[in-house]
Amino acid sequence: MDTRAALKSQYHAALKTLRLAIEACPDDRWDDPSDGLAVFWRVAYHTVFYTHFYLSDDHESFTPWEHHREHAPSLDGLDWDGTPINVACEPYTREQILEYWRLCDGMVDGRVDAMDLDAAACGFPWYPLPKLEHQLVNLRHIQHHAAALSSRLRREAGVEVAWVGRAT
């Protein structure tokens, strides 16, 4: 079994599931205030942002997307240390988030190939995990939010989103 090939396939599959949810979201659900802080666009952005972040070697080498807005990825209104933050910002459009999605999906293969999957530390001190296990956490994070958004679309808008088992 080629671990890198499996990681790449699962990254692309999870990200495709997320993309399908983003594309399927009706306009009136994109920034619905009844969703509180976890409006559709913010959950989608949060997911893509952390995919990008955790594909980096470590937190110090991360360079945010050129259109990043401070605190936009926050789903709880708290900073890293638990301090309340002002998360108000202009919503990203669907096309902006899909642009960021394409950037992240396009970097998966090169980033996975460059990783030291045998490293004892993942490069993010708040995750005391080996690099390979941290990549599995990152994949689970993508799928968690893709599933939550898909469920929201099914329940609230009658929209079905396909689940993608592996990259093709």
CATH class descriptor: Mainly Alpha
Q: Give the strand content.
A: under 5%
CA(first)-CA(last) distance: 17 Å
Radius of gyration: 16 Å
The CATH topology corresponds to Four Helix Bundle (Hemerythrin (Met), subunit A)
> In the CATH hierarchy, what is the architecture at level 2?
Up-down Bundle
> Helix count?
5
**How does the major sheet shape up?**
none
User: Helical percent range?
Assistant: 40-55%
Low-confidence stretches: none
Overall mean pLDDT score? 95
Number of domains: 1
Order of helices and strands: HHHHH
**SS-based structural class?**
mainly alpha
The total strand number stands at 0
Shape: globular
Question: Which structural traits does this protein have?
Answer:
168 residues, mainly alpha, Four Helix Bundle (Hemerythrin (Met), subunit A), 5 helices
Structure description:
By secondary structure, the protein is mainly alpha-helical. The chain has one domain (3-157): Four Helix Bundle (Hemerythrin (Met), subunit A) (Up-down Bundle), CATH 1.20.120. The chain has helices spanning 3-24, 27-30, 40-55, 94-114, 131-157. Helix 1 runs parallel beside helix 5 (131-157), helix 3 packs parallel to helix 4 (94-114) and helix 3 packs antiparallel against helix 5. It is globular. The protein starts with a helix and ends in an 11-residue tail after the last helix.
